[in-house]
């Protein structure tokens, strides 16, 4: 009798709940690797690393027995086990600062990698936008044109244009190859620009339109080629803090008047107003943010030397659409908003006016929210020195990452969703391992607050810029 | 200048010439010409002095004219962009002065943590025994003089108990035992009241170090864990040595 190991009936299910094959009889102390073999065999596709969740809740880490015991499940009924494909590639954590790029004469306020990871741009309080050569880690171009602090920068999804907005309400478009301004300066807003968002690649491969939000409460859609404002979306009564162009042709805007508005991008008609927050809504995050940002570039295909995207408009559009559909899945895009009232709301903005969930737990205002690239997890950075991880689908609280000694300003996910880097007002960056929920590496080095953090989509580098006027590049 | 008021009296009694105002006006308008004539004709040392004085006068005049001109035309301020660039998410928030945050933090939580941070010893005038210690006479006839009382501020640890009075050679009066120090951060120009951990070194004498006497130039360890400071190496600072400036309670943080 002792040779008889307890067995259990398992039904593999994918994330949407579709069953895979028929119920399987497995021993109770089966490990995740064996489960992976079985599942991959059933899937009959290329073997991918998988993670397993019993009944969609508890992850199978050591063996099924531990999970079953923890959950207290009946061993008679068929147990549903959800499998989640993990990213095939693995991003290595950054460990050292390879260079400290000086050149800005004032604090670095924003920094971003281009969608392929080939170019790096940074905007600063000295009114310049600087482009940096990543292979030699030296300055490449200094682009002058703004007359006040460059508050936000945003790369177009094909990586060929950079839009920057300044405190004097002007937007300039730059060419990263030459560092020259493309077209005219876009003027029209009356107060400073808070956020810039490009139209996704799969909707328009030319990357012609962008949306900008400003403190004056209006959102403008600009035509970059003609250099003029296409549409003005008014409706908010106070400063618009964030604007996101969704993949379904909807624009989402959040504002200090405690509301979030959903607009149709084609004609500028307001579809919905999402209310619920009790204080300023600071930040928005779309579940498909990462895939919209990288466009047709697949991080799994990244090479050591990042290349430009090649191909005709149709090819790029096709690729971007494929990637977008894969990440989006069946459900429509989810939206998360973080606010000064210490809570986050999870919305389904395309369909519902009511929030899906209210995520409480922070004890100070939330500065940034970000979905992981595979949309399963959600990270919120707050002024209460902690970062909280939530489930991306249901909004359930998962874990808290503590370690910073001052307000956490920004976070950035690695392309495989396994690591996350956070920059804080205490001048350090910390790399967190999401699987274990622990601090992976501490990256000190900045002399003053860290204002901007970004992880390149090819996973090789992390850039951070701050009040000490220098930009630091971190690599493995 | 007249010694008496006879000129005034005459004016009051008989009035002025009928063309007085006219003549006055014309004389004043001639003044510029006369000045320039004088300036041209003067020679010698007198001329040098006069020219120097006139030059400074002219400079002043030019300045006031320019100021008046600026006031007339209101120019758009094309100064340099202001300092203190902050990202968009910090723009509408008033930057809380760090000092306020730190003092709030300290008021909230008080934790004991041991820590050290070395500081070079400053060169200070050594204080003699007569200054720091006072002789206490004891005995039936007040003749014995082996006891000493500390006259400066001192720090005794938490677990301090006096020796039996018969054997006590150095007396540290309770009124002079201090537990907290006012520490001024040189950069923030803010002062915090932080608990003392111990006296590290008194430059006057090792005897004072063991007694815990705090005089000018003493290096004292202070608990700054509540401040949440981080060094460039990324370590959190637990303790800081403080240089005493005066024999009072004030000190600088290093």
Automatic annotation (TrEMBL), chain A:
Highest taxon listed in the record's lineage: Eukaryota
InterPro entries, per database record: NLE, Quinoprotein_ADH-like_sf, WD40/YVTN_repeat-like_dom_sf, WD40_G-protein_beta-like, WD40_PAC1, WD40_repeat_CS, WD40_rpt
Subcellular localization: Nucleus, Nucleolus
Principal location listed in the UniProt entry: nucleus
Any one of the GO BP annotations: Notch signaling pathway
Domain NLE: 9-65
Protein name: Notchless protein homolog 1
Organism for this UniProt entry: Oncorhynchus tshawytscha (Chinook salmon)
From TrEMBL, chain B:
Keywords attached to this entry: Nucleus, Ribonucleoprotein, Ribosome biogenesis, rRNA processing
InterPro entries assigned: NSA2_fam (IPR039411), Ribosomal_Se8/biogenesis_NSA2 (IPR022309)
GO cellular component labels: nucleolus; preribosome
Role description: Involved in the biogenesis of the 60S ribosomal subunit. May play a part in the quality control of pre-60S particles.
Protein's name in the database: Ribosome biogenesis protein NSA2 homolog
Gene3D superfamilies: 2.40.10.310
Ranges annotated as biased composition (Basic residues): 35-55
Cell compartments where the protein resides: Nucleus, Nucleolus
Similarity field: Belongs to the eukaryotic ribosomal protein eS8 family. Ribosome biogenesis protein NSA2 subfamily.
Basic and acidic residues composition bias: residue spans: 16-34, 56-82
CDD domains tied to this protein: NSA2 (cd11381)
Main location (coarse class): nucleus
Residue ranges of the TM segments: none
Subunit details: Component of the pre-66S ribosomal particle.
Gene Ontology BP term (one): rRNA processing
Domain of life (superkingdom): Eukaryota
Annotated region described as Disordered, given as residue ranges: 1-84
